[in-house]
Amino acid sequence: MADARPTAPTAPAGAPVPPTPPVPLSALLARDDLALRQLAGPTGPDVVIHWAHTSEMVDPFPYLLGGELLLTAGVQFPDAPFPDTFFDSYVARVVAAGGAALGFGLAPVHDSVPDALVTACATHGLPLLEVPPGTTFSGVARAVWQLMAQARLAELRRVTEAQQSLATAAAHADPVPSVLRRLAQRLGGHAVLYGPDGTGIAAAGRAPAPAVTEALRKLATVVRPATPPGQAQTGQAPPGQAQTSRAPTGQAPPGKPPTAPAGPAPARPASATDTADGVHLSAYALGSGEGFVLGVAAGRRDGGDHTIASVGAVLLSLLTGEHHSGAGAARSSALVRLLLGATPEEVAPLLDTGDGTSGGERIVVHARPDRQTPDAVAAAALGTALGTPLVDLDPDGEVVRLLVPAGRGPAPVPGWTLGVSAPAGAGGWPAADAQAARALARARATRVPLVRHGARPGLSELVPETAARAHAQALLAPLAAQPALTDTLRTWLSLHGSWDRTAVALGVHRNTVRQRVARAALLLGADLDDPDVRMELWFALRHS
């Protein structure tokens, strides 16, 4: 019978396993409801399984993917006495297919586990479990998936907590060292930030052995851009790095000048991994484009470690990109000058976005997401979509405000409702901010993705601004102590007296709108059914 078994090519080393959290075999053995007993093979936390599979095939090799706990009742085994080579060949094929362990079910076919099978599993290093008669194979498989779900949930919780912890660290006064410290703690290892020249700028965690440190530094060169920003590609290696890591293809022989590569340099990977002296190494190129690299050395490499390290790399990309780019420095300078008493007109030239709009007109945009409450990440993503780094998340967490170059004319953004002001210079940005707010309210009330403030001149421009503002202040004085009434009246008038649309725009009940409008009319002594009164109030509200 052994000679009649089908043949298949030997599985390559490191057979692929499914991308699910592995289950330690010890956790399965600890389940009292299963009453499993290990008879042979290695033990310990490193012995893991990825799923359970039942097969009574003489040769299960073609049906295994790797990482399985293979369950069998021995239906395919020959009757005693067993051939000398059968079990050795069977176990060898399971191991070659990447099987993680073998479970042998007692009854109804066999009353005990064959001794030859125990010997074969011990010889090939395959864990062998005895499955008692009262335990079904489906019960074992269910237990595997339950343990796997618990492991997945624990890993998700670990990653989520690490993300929150890293985000908190990024808000510290010393963000880069704080992020590295928190990253080293979460990964149980060492984290280091390499500069564009390959030197370590900051590090946290217990430093590894010198050989591991050197291996991590070399791994960082694999992901660092071949040509650092601001340097021409000449074949000259940066200080402290081997010439071979930077020499372009087509390197000239010694004594001759290097020749330029025939085409663009091959793209570097965003991350790379390696091991040195049993320590797991990882390197991540930071997206700031400045040549910074995050290096991590840890004694283990769990499934969520890459995700956690990637979050750290993203945060460090933002930190290094902002503090080491000219635009970021200019914006910081503008902020400092404003805090020290400068006017918007004086600092506007520092807000250069590289598109020729330095100090020129800009558009104010107010935006609200259609579903969730906006956060800092969503606000930054919206700024990227509209092509501006000048983003402000409202303290109430409901509106995002942006300053966009006037020449870019914001277009609708999926998932957002936008209110857009007319173009204005630095001195007119506060008025443009009010325009954008009113445009957003109208967009939400009419349920359209974008509303622009009308730029066409009107009769109100015939009245000097100072006189119009003084008239508005006097007319609306009875409402000065109740801004909610003023906002409700403005929105209600802009929507032609629609109670429902005003309620939608303000996020309140329609009865609340009615009560506020009635209260405002009473305080103003105004008949809101009179179109002349409405026109005068609208004029005043636009200049208030």
Count the E strands: 17
Range of strand content: 5-15%
CATH architecture of the largest domain: 2-Layer Sandwich
Q: Helix coverage percent of residues?
A: 25-40%
Structural class, from helix and strand content?
alpha+beta
Task: List unreliable stretches of 5+ residues.
Answer: 1-18, 228-264, 353-359
Largest sheet, described in full?
Answer: 5 strands, mixed
| CA(first)-CA(last) distance | 96 Å
What value does the Rg take, in angstroms? Answer: 35 Å
Principal-axis shape? elongated
Query: How many alpha or pi helices?
Result: 16
The CATH top-level class label of the largest domain: Alpha Beta
Can you offer a commentary on this structure?
The protein has 544 residues and is an alpha+beta fold. It folds into four domains: 23-135, Udp-n-acetylmuramoylalanyl-d-glutamate--2,6- Diaminopimelate Ligase, Chain: A, domain 1; 156-225 and 269-351, Dynein light chain 2a, cytoplasmic (Beta-Lactamase), CATH 3.30.450; 359-452, Alpha-Beta Plaits (2-Layer Sandwich); 460-543, PucR C-terminal helix-turn-helix domain (Arc Repressor Mutant, subunit A). It has helices spanning 25-29, 86-96, 115-124, 137-170, 175-187, 210-223, 305-324, 326-339, 344-347, 376-386, 429-446, 465-475, 483-494, 499-506, 510-524, 531-542, and strands at residues 23-24, 37-40, 48-49, 51-54, 68-72, 101-105, 128-131, 189-194, 200-204, 271-276, 279-285, 293-298, 362-369, 391-393, 400-405, 416-420, 450-452. The strands form four sheets. Strands 2-7-6-5-4 form a five-stranded mixed sheet. Strand 11 and strand 12 form a beta hairpin. The longest helix is centred in the N-terminal third of the chain and has 34 residues, at 137-170. The protein is elongated, with a radius of gyration of 35 Å.
